[in-house]
Amino acid sequence: MQFADRITPLQHNVFADIDRAKAHVKKSGLPIIDLSLGSSDLPTSPDILNTIANSLQDPSTHGYLLFNGTQDFRQAAAQWYEKKFGITIDPETEVLPLIGSQEGTAHLPLAILNPGDYALLLDPGYPSHSGGVHLAGGHIHAMPITVKTNFLPIFQDIPPDILNRSRMMVLSYPHNPTSAIAPLSFFQDAVQFCQNHNLVLVHDFPYVDLVFTTDLVPSVFQADVNKSCSIELFTLSKSYNMGGFRIGFAIGNPLLIQALRQIKATVDFNQYRGILNAASLALTGQQDDVLNTVGIFRKRAIAFVNGMNAIGWEVSMPEAAMYVWAKLPDRVNEYYSQQSMKFCIDLMEATGVIASPGIGFGAAGEGYIRFALVCEVEVLKIAIDRIGQFLDKIIK
Questions:
Q1: pLDDT tens, position by position, for the chain (396 residues)?
Q2: Which listed CATH number (3.40.50.1110, 1.20.120.450, 1.10.1040.10, 3.40.640.10) goes with 46-284?
Q3: Where in the chain is the domain with CATH 3.90.1150.10?
């Protein structure tokens, strides 16, 4: 049996390797603490669940849902955005429902890239950003980001021959995995750069609310006020603990929205109408639950950072998101220098604590480990104790 060449780059996935190792550890009976996935452990609001439950009793919600049937949700998304950022959005031409923001990052390259074109991606960055480029037959130019640059890319470092063949740039701040945030001045520079070089600017924005160090992080449209070249992707997975419901949306340049809509219409319709009804309620209702979620993750971050520093693994307080991006400590480099995958496998098999290797987010992520703060503080403390014991055994 012969398969298309486009799936070849998708066959090697660090997280699939971690998942296989996880299954092996589970069979051994070792108690597991899984800090590898950014899937919130917090419950979805009862009001959101009740809205879905009530929708189930309405037969009119049981059929296919096409674009025109999503009008209420698109209006709710536009209203939410305007309230948060003070920028007017046309729900008819500038909003598109998505099956999670990942659908947007996967499908957009199909609308923008021809085979052989380049996409400019952050390194490290979220793995699905590269998957869509591969499916579109595009090439990837990695923009390394490091602590020395505050985890922001240097646009001037992009080789001219690559830039001439590039059609899109993907950014995402607050950033996964590093939890870094970007100032408005950075987005202004990015928009100007993309305008100058005829690039589409894609901003993946799942952590718009999960911010610890400021009240509000910037939207790309505060820099691209005319929506000249940009599209921004949102999800309800993080702010409203609705990861399993797969609901998100895109806001952006009308031509980009139309192009993504054409791709989407070929691949799928939309989610069940009851999910969109619930999402509309979440976006337009009181945001107390969002503030509570942010407070919980902030407390977890403080506890985890303090605990890790106490066992001798120096890490910094994240600015946003739900992760701690931890450089492997110097005292274990003799064993694990530039081998984050091996470290995670050994840690898992010895302690049951599961984390994500930095190499899974790109070459520039090697030497780091990402811990997702998706357990209660007391469980995180148990994980830290196990990690400390593991580190002690390595040194001995």
A1: 988 888 888 776 777 778 888 888 888 888 999 999 999 999 999 999 999 999 999 999 999 999 999 999 999 999 999 999 999 999 999 999 999 999 999 999 999 999 999 999 999 999 889 999 999 999 999 999 999 999 999 999 999 999 999 999 999 999 999 999 999 999 999 999 999 999 999 999 999 999 998 889 999 999 999 999 999 999 999 999 999 999 999 999 999 999 999 999 999 889 999 999 999 999 999 999 999 999 999 999 999 999 999 999 999 999 999 999 999 988 887 788 789 999 999 999 999 999 999 999 999 999 999 999 999 999 999 999 999 999 998 876
A2: 3.40.640.10
A3: 5-43+289-395
Contact 282, 242 (CB under 8 A): yes
Assigned token pair, 4? 């298309």
CB-based contact 367:327 (threshold 8 Å): yes
pTM over 0.90: yes
CA within 13 Å, CB half, 132: 25
C-alpha distances out from residue 227 to 4, 47, 147, 334, Å: 36, 34, 30, 50
Q: What is the largest CA-CA distance in the chain?
A: 66
Q: Where, residue-wise, is CATH 3.40.640.10 in the chain? A: 46-284
Domain 5-43+289-395 fold is: Aspartate Aminotransferase, domain 1 (3.90.1150)
